[in-house]
Amino acid sequence: MAGRVTRILASRRREEEEAPIAGEGSGSGSDVVEFEFLDDGSESTLAKSSSSDECCSNEMELLDDEDEEERENEASVEENRSYWDNQHQLLQSVICRSSSIETGIRNATKEALKEIQSAETVCGCGRETSLSCCRMCLMREVSRRLQNHGYNTAICKTKWRSSLDIPAGEHTFVDVLDNTSSKKGEMRVMIELNLRAEFEMARGSEEYNRLVRRLPEVFVGKAERLGNIIKIMCNAGKKCMKQKKMHMGPWRKQKYMQAKWLGPCERNTNWSSTSLFSKRTPIMPKPRQMSSMLTVDLLDKLPNMHFVEPMGV
């Protein structure tokens, strides 16, 4: 306001000086009013322009925030895709590697399973179900057939106590000890008849489920190779649960899965043999004993009856 008043006084001074010459003293008031009107309008215009500038700057800030969020989402999606592609490559490289010993045992295991399936073998543990549905009987039969091929095979049982990280548990699987290579020494080959099911999760993401489907259903390989698979799958499971914002169960952690196959085990080569038979060879029922109406076995009808031999004279 001080600047505006100063300018008005200056205009009045000029008008007073010019008034005797022009002879029009009444024009000073109109000039002042007009000047004041123009001055107020310029201030309102400046205020409007400043407010519009603030609105534009706010809009630009919002657009910048949206663009930054969009870039972050795109980077997150790209990072996620890169992670799962890397996991697929790592898993494939581990599965594809195989030594001649592993390949021989794997082929013998596949042949044994094929023969068991074609023979429609029924387990003999008392449940009278298909052998493929009885895990223990299937392991025994596979181990027996591998022994017939000359392999030093056994059923292994691992058992561990609970700790702060994992709960207690136990697991059984088949292994083969090979001593054919004098340079490498003894090689231990693990046989897990249903490896894929060990890593399946009911609420797994599509990326994790695709990784699980790449696992072989029947795994035959060295302990070191199985350890690498455990590491890859457990890291992928952890990533999956983190993306879904869910808690990962302790039975899915790497330490728990390692205890299943890589922990201290009890190796049993002399298991109790169970009687296995094929569905194609029907078991004949026992013949029913026929009794005549004229001859009745009193001992069967009257089990409490006792005969007393006569005393000798």
TrEMBL record:
Which InterPro entries does the UniProt entry name for this protein? PDDEXK-like
Judging by the UniProt lineage, the source's domain of life is Eukaryota
| Location of region: Disordered | 1-81
Note the Pfam families from the entry.
PDDEXK_6
Bias (Acidic residues) occurs at 33-42, 61-77
Q: Where is the composition biased (Polar residues)?
A: 43-55
Q: Which NCBIfam families match?
A: A_thal_3542
Q: What is the name listed in the Swiss-Prot or TrEMBL entry for this protein?
A: Uncharacterized protein
Please report the organism this UniProt entry assigns to the protein. Answer: Senna tora
